[in-house]
Amino acid sequence: MEGLTRSLTFYSVGIPAYLKYEYYYRFLNSGSEEHEAEWRNLHASESKKGLDTILKLRGFYIKNGQMCASNIGNAFPKIWQDTMSVLQDGVPPRSYETVKEVIEDPVNGLGQKLGDVFTSFEELPIGSASIGQVHKAVLKKTGERVVVKVQYPDVERVFRGDVRTCIMFCKVAQPVHVPALEEIEKQFMTEFDYRKEVSEQASELHPLLKLTYPIRFARFARFARPSLKCASLRSAKAVQLETVRNNLIKSGLGGKKNGICVVPRPYSELCSKNVLVMEELVGEKLVDGLKKDFERYAKSLGKSVAETISDEEEKAEQNEDCERERGPDAKTMAAYLSLLNTKRIAKNVFKACTFRWNKFEGRDTLPLNHAQLVDQLIHIHGHEVLIDGYFNGDPHPGNVLLVGGKLGLIDYGQVKRISNEDRILLARMVIALCEDDKEEVVRLIRAVGYKTKKMNDDLHYIYAKICLDADNKTLTNGLHIQKFMEYLEGEDPIVELVSGAEWSGASHILTQRCNDAMITRSAQPREFVMVSRVSLMLRGLGHALKQPRSIAQCWRPFAERVLREEGVLEEVKK
Ligand SMILES: Nc1ncnc2c1ncn2[C@@H]1O[C@H](COP(=O)(O)OP(=O)(O)O)[C@@H](O)[C@H]1O
Ligand SMILES: [Mg+2]
């Protein structure tokens, strides 16, 4: 389906839905039983139409649907999340022939016959989503089990048009989301544009390439590929994956032996623009593990899953003190789990004595430690952002597997690099948020380029808190986050998110406690937007599991380490 038709299809569903929602918000918002029922019907019918359109258009729309399913920013109604949840993994795949063609393509694929590389290749994918699909296979050379991630050949062109359509729509309907969408647009474009990233990485790897840096890399890569056989030149995705993996291993967080997470190893010589071959992580999807937990929980209450969901929703609505309900912390949960485990072992011993071997209960019958899970994910990503300055910008639950008691972290399509100056600025912001030093928070959020019409201090402070700290209803004045963002935009609209280059003179803002000499230029807001996105995603999972967190508090040790290493911690703490 070509550009204009795609846009029209989107608008034909998006505009009526938007108008309906506006109407409901204005006239059916009394909170009465009758109005609530109307809202539920609206969510049910519109989310269904939305899903049908997404499945028809695919591309960027699937990414948006996935964001809704994982409730990024805690902004989506439950009915919408549930409807969109099929997109987490259930997008209909493309044919095996298409996949084979992509793999065998001499320019953007591996340029070899599929049968020459793999002894077996499962035709049915284990995952398929917006930009490609994933298949299991076995390597011919070594017999190792791998997964092969294939990107659809036409996806890049279609994506560009789709993102533009969404931006145009938001400019009219939801201007508050435009800056974030524009950033996501840039980010997605780098997801396709491997050449720049590869040449940056390569210039670090190979002195010869320093000379070629100004040369358009596409031409050079084609010439270099057969002769240099420098595999890292061939796929930025493989380089990104490998870099994050090495960083995590170096920090002690990653690794099969002692780490808390594992990242698959890419086979660089088998990676190209549209193909990524990597180690298979054997485990379960986090989303499936959590689903099982919920089913067990419902069973323990003697209720069906649907009943339990509706009870939980009711409880959340009745929660009038604006504080979210909190589940047990990691230690309490660990103690409870060890008790359950002892019971499980005792039961198994009894079963063994009565020769009922087939009734054994495995460790996977125990629930997950939700608090620990949230803490670990926030910790790992805090390390990536603040210490490594190289982070996965898309850490939603669909990109997490459970691999033998560790987190399996996959999907490095949107990796972001941040400069040293930006890390320091972020570290300062984290400390200022922890200390609740409003003046400093406001100064720093402006230093990253946040600019609004009235430059209202109070609103800038709240915006910074929502981005990097917490999003409870006390902060948003009892409003739902979406409505709160609209309120912010109405009160003091964003003028622009200024780019780093334009902010070369920003250091005057960082007077008083900030060391001007150290911050030679301001952080680029682009990076700030992506870090906020990570923070919102991680908090989204926290809310879903009744484990709300302050990101700033969780990241404080990293922020202190950054500032200590820069020799400015004492000055900041003053
Ligand atoms: N290294 C891996 N080992 C095992 N399964 C994987 C691996 N990489 C991806 N998968 C499976 O494929 C699915 C989609 O992979 P992902 O990289 O998240 O692609 P997408 O860009 O479509 O989201 C995952 O949910 C997971 O089930
Ligand atoms: Mg994914």
Structural description of this entry:
This protein has 574 residues and is of the alpha+beta class. The chain folds into 4 domains: 87 residues; 151 residues; 83 residues, no CATH class; 189 residues, no CATH class. The protein has 23 helices and 14 strands. The strands form 4 sheets. Strands 1, 2, 3, 4, 6 and 7 form a 6-stranded antiparallel sheet that branches. Strands 5-11-10-8 form a 4-stranded mixed sheet. The chain has a two-stranded antiparallel ribbon with strand order 9-12. Helix 1 runs antiparallel to helix 2, helix 16 runs antiparallel to helix 21 and helix 18 packs across helix 19. The longest helix is centred in the first third of the chain and has 25 residues. It binds adenosine-5'-diphosphate (ADP) and magnesium ion (MG). Magnesium ion binds next to loops.
